[in-house]
Amino acid sequence: KQEVTQIPAALSVPEGENLVLNCSFTDSAIYNLQWFRQDPGKGLTSLLLIQSSQREQTSGRLNASLDKSSGRSTLYIAASQPGDSATYLCAVRRLTGGGNKLTFGTGTQLKVEL
Amino acid sequence: DVKVTQSSRYLVKRTGEKVFLECVQDMDHENMFWYRQDPGLGLRLIYFSYDVKMKEKGDIPEGYSVSREKKERFSLILESASTNQTSMYLCASTRSGSSYEQYFGPGTRLTVT
User: Fold this and answer.
1) Contacts of A23 in chain B (CB under 8 A)
2) Which residues of B touch A106 (CB under 8 A)?
């Protein structure tokens, strides 16, 4: 059974700092990996998706890497801002008979302080 | 722009009531999902559907059923609500045969008293 772990569970940094969020998974037979952001009481917003054949994806100040063989992904946030404060979730995808299933980590709660 | 909507943001129901949560997507996606999210447990998959009238159990289907009569609509049904079903419920959808990037609705906070 796939298990996804995110460390740390919570992180507080000063504005402007570069930071790395970690995600590890136990079964490397994944189709792809997706990073999400969730604001309090809201749904999830997709940030980046990395296919299993890719090593990294970038969007603005965000860069996600994937090392499938070791079961690890990182989300790098450059020059953090207070608006980045949210919970960040990673999820790994496998294909099923007719569709696909995601297994989620429990998230890293990020606070960026002025 | 991709859009997944859920019928209610907040819902309060009594124990034993039958509860319907509705989800609609306007992207012509084949796959739709219902999750619940609880502190410390993360998101857990209740049911998913990869086509109209098709459904598969997720990790925690007990106490729930689903209905997908039209491609754009996926309903979650609590046959007899219980207090342990108090949670945040999230609906999502993906397109088949692609990256399967998943798009989420805003969530329904259900309280069962």
Assistant:
1) none
2) 40-42
Q: Is B61 on the interface with A (CB under 8 A)?
A: no
Cα(A27)–Cα(A65) distance, rounded to whole angstroms?
Answer: 17
Does A3 contact chain B (CB < 8 Å)? no
Query: If we measure between CA atoms, which residue out of B21, B62, B63, B67 comes closest to residue B48?
Result: B67
Nearest-angstrom CA–CA distance, A84 and B61: 34
Q: Which tens digits make up the pLDDT trace of B10-28?
A: 999 999 999 999 999 999 9
Distance CA B103, CA B113 (A): 30
Whole-angstrom Cα distance, residue B57 to residue B45? Answer: 8
Residue A104 region by backbone torsions, left for phi larger than 0, else alpha for psi between -120 and 50, else beta: beta
Per-residue pLDDT band for A86 (boundaries 50, 70, 90) equals very high
